[in-house]
Fold this sequence. Notes:
Layout: E1 2-9, E2 16-25, E3 28-39, E4 43-44, E5 49-50, H1 61-81, H2 88-100, H3 109-112, H4 116-119, H5 124-134, H6 139-163, H7 177-189, H8 191-194
Antiparallel strand pairs: 1-2, 2-3, 4-5
Amino acid sequence: MKTSIYLRKTKKGADEMTLCIRIRQGKLDLRAVTPLSVISQFWDCRKQCYKPNTPVSVIGKDKRVSFNKEVGRLLAFVEESVSEEADADALKEAIARFFAAPEKQDITPEQRQTPAAVEERMSVLEGFQRYLGENDFSSRHISETRCIERKIKRYIEWQRRMNGIESYEMFLDDLDPAVLSNFREFAASGKATRL
């Protein structure tokens, strides 16, 4: 049984869309509306959560993280609650039970866990370590990759010093053209070798 989320336009506004749940298995194809809505341009349909670079003016960081976790718990709850012989009414009932009294729900430990895409954020440096650890490369490729990794470490340290953000970190899902352009300028300016 595959449970997923799709978006449907709301009456409220052009950008705001309602989250709907879809369950598919064989010939079974159930759909139901949830009371949750999102701004469509900041929604990641592949990961089924708000994008990490969503502006704070749209939704605060803490609220975004808790919203994404709630969506993950909802998907897990629906998947666990709806049987293969269910119909659309059973799906609607499961959604209603989830939102009726969230603190009183009988949620299993598996349902408390959110999908990995929502919960885990890998830093760029962790990505480099994983990349080198999981693959067998020539010593030259490893050496060149380590060189880039050291430049990224210096860039992160430079960001922490110059901007006064002690907790600054580069995450893979936060990389966008602006961040990459800033890093390229930093590396080309020679600051990467002076720290």
